[in-house]
Amino acid sequence: MQQIVDEVVGVLLPMLKEKPFALFGHSFGAFTSFAVADHLKQVHNLEPVHIFLSGASAPYSEMRINAPKRSNLSDDDFLKWMSSIGGTPPELLANPEVLKLFVPALKADLHVVENYRCNKPDKPLLSCSVTCFDGKDDIPHDLQAWKSITSGDFTTRMLDGSHFYLKDPGNEKILLDYITKQLETSEIDYL
């Protein structure tokens, strides 16, 4: 995860120094957004005005720590699991040549997520607002555990759908409208 954070910060830091910013991350992206925000605060004393996290328990949540490790599944079982959570086009899952490239990369990404660890903060790391989203039909995530990262406002929003609820056009509109309203309220120019 540190390598990912270093790459993201290396690319974005010049822009983030110039004006206020917000972060959004879904699933793997939620962990990345949190890790980037933590790094920016610790190393550069920069903080987003808002973090939007989606489809993931906090990295120190007992629910997450005790969750089954999917990256160690056989390729067949991994593909069955991928089909069960949705979000992957069926034509991709039916193409053996594409799967030879796709499965190792997905398993590697999932391995990073499953092994990312940090301790629950003794005191909030950030002071910005945090909003957590999730699909009502996704596996349960400990969204409330994210509250520990901030002394700012904390909100959760549940939308219809499973893990890839945000791909639904109606949910996409809800997300974009909500995020836009929050950022306009913060009076920032966002990336």
Automatic annotation (TrEMBL):
Span of domain Thioesterase: 1-179
Highest rank taxon of the organism: Eukaryota
GO molecular function: fatty acyl-[ACP] hydrolase activity
Presence of the UniProt keyword Lipid biosynthesis in the record: yes
Catalytic activity, reaction form: (9Z)-octadecenoyl-[ACP] + H2O = (9Z)-octadecenoate + holo-[ACP] + H(+)
Signal peptide: none
GO BP terms, alphabetized: medium-chain fatty acid biosynthetic process
Family the entry assigns: Belongs to the thioesterase family.
Protein known as: S-acyl fatty acid synthase thioesterase, medium chain
